[in-house]
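Comment thread on ticket #2218

A.B. wrote:
> Attaching the input chain for the structure job we discussed in standup.
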Amino acid sequence: MRKILFVVNRTKPEAQRIADRLARAARGAGMDVEICGDFPVPDSAFKGADICCVVGGDGTILSCVRAAADFGIPIFGINLGKLGFLAHYSDSIDDASFLTLAAGEGRILERELLEARIGGRAFVALNDFAVKSSGAAAVSGLGISADGEFIANYVGDGLVFSTPTGSTAYNLSAGGPLIHPKAKVFVMTPVCPHTLSNRSLVYDASAKIGISCLSGDCVFVSDGRIVSDFPRGSQAEVFISSKTVKFSRLRGHSHFSILRSKLGWAEDPRHLRQ
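C.D. wrote:
> Ran it. Output below, let me know if you need it in another format.
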């Protein structure tokens, strides 16, 4: 019997109602159903599941990434948040479309993760890692190398290391480039650098980036969540992980259609009626 795990963000008023409706459809199709509203989601919830439906928003999906990657379980999301780059199906999804995804008949997209190693500990991120000052008004000095070769020292509010998937998140807000999710690269974008010539650097997927905290007390942030202190003298390494996370999408899924919709890209004004 195929098993679907629902991860429900119960802080969203309609989340439980939507999960219950979709769960009835899944049971009607002969599937086993588990509904989890705990946060953080325990790893044990993913054990034995064939697919995970997240009812919430992008933040809820990000909280599931590590466990979903470890268990190899595809994710799809019902967006009750704001932008919904990751959880982009609406709460009005019909039963037929939902069951196509739940039955594993959708298109499986594999997305790369970033990995960071700090003081013997390892973390993964789907969108990004950020190294930033722990104080609200403080600046940081960070030394960066790539595959052992010194690049530069950066002074400012911090640095963002982003996957192609996460290029529409913090990286974009900091002035970084949009990157197609199939590109085998990752990007480093300075946040409010004191040297105006400091701009985004795009690295090959095989690169290993060394980070040294030269001044200021910093924190290391994974997908918006602080995972480690990073005080002066600390060192870390960031690189593309050997792990990936899978997403289930309906046939006809279009990356550029999502960008047009979510970023509000306008049509050519010359073609619009006055």
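A.B. wrote:
> Thanks. Noting for the ticket: The mean pLDDT is 93.
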